[in-house]
Amino acid sequence: MIAVTALALCAAAALGAISFESEREAAAAHARQLAAQTARDHAAAEARAAKDGLDRVDGQLAQLHDQVQHSIQRVTDAQTDADRARANAARDDERRRIAEEQQRRVDAKRRHDEAIRKGGIHSEKCVGTALGCLDP
Questions:
Q1: What is the pLDDT of residues 13-65, one digit of tens each?
Q2: Closest by Cα among 99, 119, 123 to 111
Q3: Number of Cβ within a 10 Å radius of residue 133
Q4: CA gap 54, 50 in Å, rounded
Q5: If you ran DSSP here, which 8-state letter would residue 30 be given?
Q6: How many CB atoms within 10 Å of residue 123?
Q7: What is the pLDDT of residues 99-124, one digit of tens each?
């Protein structure tokens, strides 16, 4: 009888330890899930901010193109030489601003590509495959 009672106590202690361990693992899994959810929410917020910035730049470029079209229409509609000269000057100024903005984009792209070329390829890693040369 004592042996059965001792065996039952050992089994109860083992089940208690297993229960405690699984509860601790569940708490750790819940903490990991909360961290992953926070990271996902942060990444979604960054993606929305980047999209908003891109939309803003696209809107500004569209507005500049609309201004050029309006200037072209003013040149066409101008009645006097002075009106035409003012409209042409405004159109040329807007075209110049667009060209400067496009040049800034080209320069930024060139600097980005140069930085990738300078730091991204390591010939000592090119063993049997071209993809091995690139940093992850």
A1: 877 878 878 888 888 888 888 888 887 777 667 767 777 767 777 777 888 88
A2: 119
A3: 14
A4: 6
A5: H
A6: 7
A7: 888 887 777 777 777 766 665 555 56
Q: Return the number of other C-beta atoms located less than 10 Å from residue 68's C-beta.
A: 18
Which two structure tokens, joined as six digits, stand for 106? 């080209």
Tokens representing 65 are: 């193109």
Q: Identify the residue whose tokens are 């229960």.
A: 19
With beta carbons less than 8 A apart as the criterion, state whether 97 and 60 touch: no
Q: Which residues contact 90 (CB under 8 A, 6 or more apart)?
A: 71, 74
pTM: 0.40
Beta bridge partners of 121: 134
Written as one letter, the residue type at 25 is E
Domain map (residue ranges) of the chain: 49-120
Q: Are the C-beta atoms of 70 and 79 separated by less than 8 Å?
A: no
Could you tell me the two tokens for 26?
Answer: 């569940």
pLDDT at 37 (0 to 100): 83
Contact present, 87 and 75 (Cβ < 8 Å): yes
Can you list the alpha helix ranges (DSSP code H) found in the chain?
2-77, 81-120
